[in-house]
Design goal:
The protein has 122 residues and is mostly helical. It has 5 helices and no strands. Helix 2 crosses helix 5. The longest helix has 25 residues. The protein is globular and about 30 Å long. The termini are far apart.
């Protein structure tokens, strides 16, 4: 019986953890509400950077498929918004798909706007 109570308490903590992390990231102490998307660069860094920065697995795979000049998404000027949305929602090869729960539409739009921006690239 005691093990069941401990398991139930652990499940409650684990279930609440993602909400607490998001609230801490936003600095509100409250769960995330449907608010305007944050800066696209910051979202790209937080949500995509683990794979799509210089030493990430996504960059490595793109370099193998398309060459070094096309491997860093932030540096590309040829990306188009519909393609970014399609790949984010459906995945491609080793890239997983992201649901609207995992990556809300407003966040995807902010990331898309950042990757398709005009002007200098890093």
């Amino acid at each position: 019986m005691r093990a069941l109570k401990i398991a139930t308490a652990a499940a409650a903590v684990i279930t609440a953890l993602p909400v607490a992390v998001i609230a801490a990231e936003q600095g509100t102490g409250q769960p995330a509400a449907a608010s305007p998307a944050a800066d696209g660069k910051a979202l790209f860094t937080r949500r995509c950077g683990i794979c799509h920065f210089a030493d990430g697995g996504g960059t490595w795979m793109l370099e193998r498929r398309l060459g070094k000049s096309q491997s860093l998404l932030e540096s590309r000027a040829d990306l188009q918004a519909p393609y970014i949305r399609l790949i984010a929602r459906h995945g491609l090869n080793g890239m997983p798909r992201f649901t609207r729960v995992e990556l809300p539409d407003q966040d995807l739009e902010a990331i898309t706007a950042y990757l398709t921006r005009s002007g200098p690239r890093p």
